[in-house]
Specification:
- The complex is a heterodimer.
- Chain A has 20 helices and 26 strands.
- Helix content of chain A is 33%, strand content 22%.
- In chain A, α6 crosses α8, α9 packs parallel to α10 and α10 runs parallel beside α12.
- Classes of the chains: A alpha/beta, B mainly beta.
- At the A-B interface, α2 of A face loops of B.
- The complex binds zinc ion (2 copies).
- One zinc ion binds next to loops of chain A.
């Protein structure tokens, strides 16, 4: 079947196309060159419409242990937000921690076609994939979490050589079916269990004697040398601590030019100035990002309202547990090899800290010059649920709206931000970079996030509206792999996406020491830890897509 | 105007969420008839399930076997609702004002998270009367619940404000985690009364089998506020309104010292 998308205004930054009227042809789920003389089976007249690739969320907590803990802990989140089943859709629920089906529907309804779970604990990877396997329509993938695992910390303590670490990292990516490596509070999750309540960049883990800097350097090198396209994905030290901007800046310079992605950097950009000893470090962070082309960031924007924070960072979540709203929280060990903390939270615009967090996030968006290196996230659900993306896009694109929102915030917070004076407004082209072309390039998806021949036909069509929030909330059409899945903001057809992975080569010898280690210390055998392609494919609904690694080792 | 009377045509096979009916005071009888409710995986119009007579939509009467109907009177305002028989779970949940009168029994979570008004149950009620929903941190926070029969376990769990009156017996963990407010029981109470009680009062006519070890014995007192408190119940159609059942002399136990410990169990003395 040949589909023609006729006369839409196309934004395809991967090919430098900035709002040009073009025809697109789709065949067998792919975008193709206009086939000479071929009969078009279905034509969509897109004149006056805006056409972009399907959006990609490169950091969103949609599967795995902590999301389930959040679901279990917050029945009220589900009760208050039911989604009834229809002829086409299954029932579900949840605002901050929606159920799997609802997650897929709501993302697709906003024109998103791919999403990545950034905190897959290797020992829980099967659960994360099984959950994501129940998310319809979207393509998905995960970043495997290392850095507080006993095996790596032992290696570092014992001075293992980089090659051995590379093998372990590559083995982990293969075994867990992930596409990237994430580190959360490097070493800190483990240190917390040894009663350390903070671990700065150069502080030693009491038991292993290893510092976060060493962990970051080693893992970033491994990821780089293995040729994994996605740079080491870092949730840094001292999340949420006033003054952590210094740590973040040291992290940027300390990595010595290696590719590094700093996630939810908003939570790591705080100074200690002012009457409340809490201030914006956004300008300094943006300056450092601008000056270091090896560094990319996603923001982790805070938006006001009730949500839940779910993180592997048990150390910082424990410190923040007193702010839980409603008053309940969980911090737990996971299989003696990781941890997590789930703390429900309500961001309030009349609260000085929350208001300034909101402003800091926006400052970072607007002060980082290169939209290829800053990504649109709320760190769902930590800063806000992903359903608030259209609102966030409007804040970036519409200065009048932004300043009007700013004027409602805590007055002291308004005095502490330069936001009102920032004139920049994002263009549609820049939004398309941030949410499509840039995100695909960052994660290493060569056939997503763009509209060139050969790309998967994940396409979102919007009808222009003065209110871009409305426009981005309700696309006119969404195509997933060439199939129409959304019309006028409503699901018309449910499909199943693939799971994106990388499978770098490694020396199989690592499996010998790992087998011994698993037998001795872990809760399962090595063979059971490894997730096969068949498990992800399940009954044929899912599939594994392997993206190439260009080994540099 | 006569009350809008809904007579069940036949008992549904699935449980029915009847909460949409709480909007009745703002609707015409025809609009009430057209309301959609869920039963299992199907949706029904109210008039598919009930014969409808009368016109006063502020005044509803449900007739027939309503034991499979849940959330009757949920979040209602200024609605007077009578169930001429027994009702399902979550009856009167979150109700703000008005009355819910169940002439038979109510299932679990009756009057849970009630905010105002009167919930009266002539028969017995299940577990978690006036409690918080699972996961929530606050139970009932206003209004009065009157149960003429017995109640199940965890009566008044996390109750925040308001009064629960039980003429019959109460099950185990009566007044558990009670935050503030009053639970009064004329009959017997089960094990662990006032478990985790923070503030507020458990008022008992009969001595429980045992007082939890985390309560301190404060001796026997005459409390001046009790006659005032009973006087406040005079208008109720209840044994609680009968001066013969009132008293002012109590044995007081302070606790639960394992929680905040500013509450009390008061037991009628002498
Ligand atoms: Zn994080
Ligand atoms: Zn995150």
């Amino acid at each position: 079947m040949l589909i023609k998308l006729k006369g839409g205004t196309v934004y395809d930054p991967a090919h430098g196309i900035d709002g040009q009227v073009r025809d697109l042809y789709v065949q067998d789920g792919r975008i193709v060159e206009p086939p000479p003389g071929a009969r078009v089976d279905r034509e969509y007249d897109l004149s006056g419409k805006i056409v972009m690739a399907g959006a990609i969320d490169m950091h969103t907590h949609i599967g795995g242990g902590k999301v389930n803990i959040a679901r279990v802990m917050l029945p009220e989140d589900h009760r208050a937000d039911p989604q009834y089943h229809t002829e086409r859709l299954r029932s579900g629920c949840g605002h901050a921690a929606p159920s799997t089906w609802t997650t897929g529907y709501r993302y697709a309804e906003m024109g998103f076609t791919t999403a990545f779970e950034p905190a897959v604990l290797p020992v829980n990877a099967r659960q994360a994939h099984m959950e994501m396997g129940d998310i319809p329509i979207l393509d998905k993938g995960g970043y495997a979490m290392l850095g507080s695992d006993d095996f790596l910390l032992r290696m570092l303590r014992d001075g293992a050589d980089q090659k051995a670490v590379n093998d372990y990292v590559a083995w982990t990516l293969n075994a867990t079916q992930c596409i990237g490596i994430k580190v959360v509070n490097p070493g800190g999750i483990s240190a917390f269990k040894f009663n350390q309540r903070a671990l700065d960049l150069d502080e030693r883990h009491e038991y292993y004697g290893v510092t976060p800097r060493q962990i970051l350097k080693t893992l970033a090198t491994a990821v780089h040398e293995l040729g994994v396209p996605h740079p080491l994905h870092v949730h840094g030290c001292n999340l949420g601590v006033p003054g952590n901007v210094e740590t973040t800046l040291k992290t940027i310079t300390g990595i010595e030019g290696l590719p590094l992605h700093l996630t939810h950097i908003q939570f790591h950009s705080y100074g200690t100035e002012g009457d409340f000893k809490f201030s914006s470090g956004a300008a300094r962070i943006a300056e450092a990002v601008n000056a270091n082309p090896n560094v990319t960031v996603d923001v982790g924007q805070v938006l006001f309202g009730q949500t839940v924070t779910a993180s592997g960072d048990n150390m910082r979540q424990h410190a923040n547990a007193g702010h839980a709203h409603p008053k309940k929280w969980v911090c737990m060990d996971i299989e003696c090899d990781a941890g997590c903390g789930v703390v429900p939270f309500k961001y309030r615009d009349r609260n000085f800290v929350n208001a300034l967090q909101w402003a800091i996030g926006l400052e970072i968006f607007l002060l980082v010059d290169d939209p290829w290196r800053v990504f649109l996230t709320t760190d769902h659900p930590n800063g806000a649920p992903f359903t608030s993306y259209p609102h966030l896009i409007r804040l970036l694109m519409d200065r009048t709206f932004r300043n009007e929102q700013l004027s409602r915030l805590h007055p002291e917070a308004q005095k502490m931000t330069t936001l009102a004076s920032i004139e920049r407004e994002y263009s549609l082209y820049e939004i398309a970079i941030m949410t499509r072309a840039g995100a695909a390039r960052l994660v290493g998806l060569e056939d997503r996030g763009h509209l060139g021949p050969g790309a998967a036909a994940d396409i979102t069509v919007y009808t222009p509206d003065d209110d871009v929030e409305r426009m981005f909330a309700k696309p006119t059409y969404v195509f997933k792999d060439g199939e129409l899945v959304v019309k006028d903001g409503e699901i018309v057809h449910v499909t199943w996406g693939t799971t994106h992975t990388v499978k770098p080569d490694y020396d199989r010898a690592i499996e010998r020491s790992l087998t011994d280690y698993f037998d001795r210390y872990l809760t399962m055998k090595l063979d059971n830890f490894i997730i096969s392609d068949e498990e992800i494919a399940e009954d044929g609904r899912g599939s594994v897509t392997v993206h190439p690694c260009g080994g540099r080792g | 105007m006569s009350a809008l009377t809904l007579t069940l045509k036949s008992a549904p096979r699935q449980r029915v969420d009847l909460s949409p009916l709480s909007a009745a005071p703002e609707l015409t009888p025809a609009e009430v008839a057209a309301l959609q409710v869920w039963a299992g995986k199907r949706r029904y119009r109210i008039d598919e399930l009930f014969e409808i007579e009368g016109e006063d939509t502020r005044n509803l009467v449900l007739r027939g076997d309503c034991r499979k109907f849940d959330y009757v009177g949920r979040d209602a305002r200024d609605l007077s609702l009578t169930v001429a028989g027994s009702v399902g779970a979550y009856a009167g949940m979150g109700m703000r004002s008005g009355t819910l009168h169940v002439q038979g029994d109510a299932d679990i979570f009756a009057a849970c998270e009630l905010r105002g008004g009167l919930v009266r149950i002539d028969g017995s009620a299940g577990d978690f009367v006036g409690a918080a929903l699972p996961g929530d941190k606050r139970g009932m926070r206003g209004g009065i619940v009157l149960v003429k029969g017995d109640v199940g376990a965890r009566c008044g769990d996390q109750l925040r404000r308001g009064i629960v009156l039980v003429e019959g017996d109460a099950g185990d963990w009566c007044g558990s985690r009670l935050i503030a407010g009053t639970v009064a029981v004329m009959g017997r109470v089960g094990k662990h009364p006032g478990y985790g009680l923070r503030r507020g009062t458990l008022l008992l006519w009969q001595r429980p089998e045992s007082i939890p070890p985390t309560y301190g014995d404060c001796g026997v007192h005459t409390l001046g506020f009790l006659p005032l408190w009973f006087a406040g119940l005079r208008r109720l159609d209840s044994r609680f309104a009968d001066p013969a059942n009132a008293f002012d002399r109590v044995h007081r136990y302070g606790g639960d010292l394992a929680a905040v410990g500013r509450g009390e169990i008061l037991i009628r003395a002498g």
